[in-house]
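Notes continue from the previous slide.

Worked example: a multi-chain complex. Inputs as given:
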Amino acid sequence: MSTPAVRLSGVTKDFGPVQAVRGIDLELAQGEVVAFLGPNGAGKTTTIDMVLGLSQPTGGTAEVLGMAPRRAVAHGLVSAVMQTGGLIKDLTVRETVEYTASLFAETMPVDEALANAGIASIADRKVGKCSGGEQQRLRFAMALLPDPALLLLDEPTTGMDVEGRRTFWSAIRKDADKGRTVLFATHYLEEADQYADRIVLISRGRIVADGTGAEIRALATGRTVRATWPGADHEALAALPGVDQVDVRGEQVLVHAKDSDEVARFLLTQTAARDLEITSKNLEDAFLSLTGADA
Amino acid sequence: MSTMTDVPARRVPPLGGFNLTLLRIELFRMLRNRRTIIFTLILPAALLLTVGNQKGWQDTAGSGNVAAYILISMALYGAALTAAATGSMVALERAVGWSRQLRLTPLHPVAYIIVKALVALSMGALAILAVNVVGILQGKAEMPLHVWIEAAVVTLFCTLTFAALGVFVGYLVPSENAMQILGPGLALLSFLGGVFIPIDTYAEVVRYVAYWTPMYGVAEVARAPLTHDLPWFAIVNAVGWFAIFVAGAAWRMSKDTARV
């Protein structure tokens, strides 16, 4: 087993009285493309900052490729593309890339970086005169200069059109196949599902789900059957085909199943259950229920 | 697979990332800025041409004449303004997230500060050179060659005080408008500190206030090679304000790192 690209153990981060991150354990293998999914304010950016060594965890440890994040940055092993800002308006595109390239011990040639990002034709344009999309391409050109082993992206495709998104992700996938680990923060469920090998769902500073897109979706497929059944038989319900979760709360029974009809038929024909209610969840609901209010 | 994470094969850049490409790009960037050029190179030279023309320019001042005294003063003013403009850009870069971007590279914060200080010094040197060239062309200033050189070098180092002031003010006024405060502010301080008008022409009350202002000390120090007259409190003033501005800049910067 090779060194994990990222290892967070018991990481917490407080800002004064506010707990932004409340204990995250996470390990990313090399070459994985992982989506960091969660609503705004869930702690995504705070966690990414700690992986980059931009801030120190209040508790726990963060490691990148087996070393302290700052060391990994100094070796050019980690790069990131932030959502906004981070560029000087009165430098040209080429100067910006040249500036960044000069800081690394080993780097790809500037012209190659410009060509790869598709911004060679605007190399002499001032950054302030570039469109949002062009600036985003520039940020990528800068991030890829040191050929990083780990790439962190904060909402990478914001403002891109469908075609741009597709081109972007196919390029990311190609690099991941060569062993680059990619962790991207997003609040777009579809994007996470389509492009990530693995989705880490985060809410209120905690990981609430971690699995493949299919696994996360499974949490969302099926329906929930709710009924009032005093003295419910937990075992019998769990044994029904297609049932993946049974919850008994006092007289209330909540059964989550792929085949809700089977559960309903059983409850109504063979038990004293009443007040039956069947609700379905879509992907969005699963996301909301996993990340949402009551805990 | 292993090529991507072969850590020993990946070197860390020498000198914390400091290199000449950085310096070149930063300098070109300053030189392209029309406002910088006008306020730092053209304005002080123009001031020299007008103020340097006043009556009595040929009177003796130290080991030279009054025109030489005015030339050194204007060079100081120009260099201070340039250095302050350079300093204020540090805060601007932070505001737009460039500093954060740089934190994702091997560039060490100390190397960044050194680059900025060297840019401020280079721009200051350019401002001093511009005033001196105009002064030579004007043909009024007279002082021994070693005084020209000594005064220019001392002036250059005095400008670091104003680079620190620029950083400090840049943080207090986090926008591209820091220069709109620094410009008139430095002009006012220059009047008070005896850069534009000799301080002994002021009323006693004004003079006692002036002794405490930041331009007074450096002006006396910069002109000392010419005047051979350097009161002890001028040195205290110069060193004191340098320390205050550096401390202020460092304080604001460290306050700001929580966000970066």
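Summary box: Residues 74 and 189 of chain A are 33 Å apart (CA to CA). The interface with chain B takes residues 2-3, 5, 30-31, 52-55, 65, 67, 73-80, 82, 84-91, 95, 98-100, 102-106, 142-143, 147, 149, 178-180 of chain A (CB under 8 Å).
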